[in-house]
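In this supplementary section we document a worked example of the pipeline. Step one takes a protein sequence of length 359 as its only input; no multiple sequence alignment statistics are reported here. Step two produces a three-dimensional model, which step three serialises into structure tokens for compact storage. The input and output of this example are shown verbatim.
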Amino acid sequence: MNNALNSVSDIFYEDQNDIFNSLKDSWKSLKGEKIFLTGSSGFFGKWLLESLAQANNILDLNVSAVVLTRNLNKVLFKELINNPSIEFYKGDIRDFKFPTGDFKYIIHGATTSAFETYNNQDPLVKHDIITNGTRRVLEFAKLTNCNNFLYLSSASAYGRQLMNKSKLSEELNTAPLTNDKNFDFSVLGESKRIAELFTTIYSQKHNINTSIARCFSFVGPFIPINIHYAIGNFIRDALIKKDITINGSGNSYRSYMYMTDLTIWLWTILFQGTNCEIYNVGSDEEINIKDLANRIKKILNTNINITINDDSNSIDTRYIPDISKIRKNLNLNISINLNKSITRTIDHIKQNRSFYNFD
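The serialised model returned by step three reads:
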């Protein structure tokens, strides 16, 4: 096992091998390059950086990654700080001092964190971080001779999607309602749309190849299990044999992509994405929330109860991506179905109980 991975479980190591093998030829384009990443000190970043570190080690790429972070003490995965190919660079996304040197590759994922959203972050701060933060990173891209820029957006850019039978296509012309007082959702979605527009403008003005990944919902090792991620909370409760409570009717539909597929898709979009294109990133295997809870209960073979805590204000929604575009244009597919995704996540939690605060 290489040094980048010797502190993680066998499941995550197996996943990293799958990622490496899927991208074996693509990694070579990074040889000798520098890559700048934002929003990579948490869940997504763990997967992106570990996969990069493994490729760097095996293929001797001599690639270096600079990762912007507001606070080194809040980097979730401390082992990454000690990796010689990764530098954590302190700064606020809205006004950070530009690192020196040329960065041909940039992945911009910085947004308000899931924990900040969970704790009811001020919507004006959320908007400022997403929009002005993106503008700042694009200014850096303009000056640092960036060739490939990937922006990590969100399915919230489509706006609130009520129950219907259509999957969400990248060509869908919908947006968040500006009078939606659910600011965690409406401000996130509208801010992401503005950031996407900035990305396209800078591409056209400054000849930067940009791509946008609209990310849906995900599951896999290291998922937060104590905030507002339904699937993470359901797995946590089922593991400790606590009854699962569903807030709402349970009839909303979601889909969950395993993190191996997410990581492969994001790197592929960075390397091969068409300029100024938007790509949906997520699974199209849909399930409603009530059935999701029952699926987890069945996989764990536990006799806990599932309670529906509905009220008259709950609104059923359906967020399922149409991924035909990315399948056709970039030859990407879903390799891990929902059952296997849940099972592997559960097994990882069991193997790493202290990380998830089960001890």
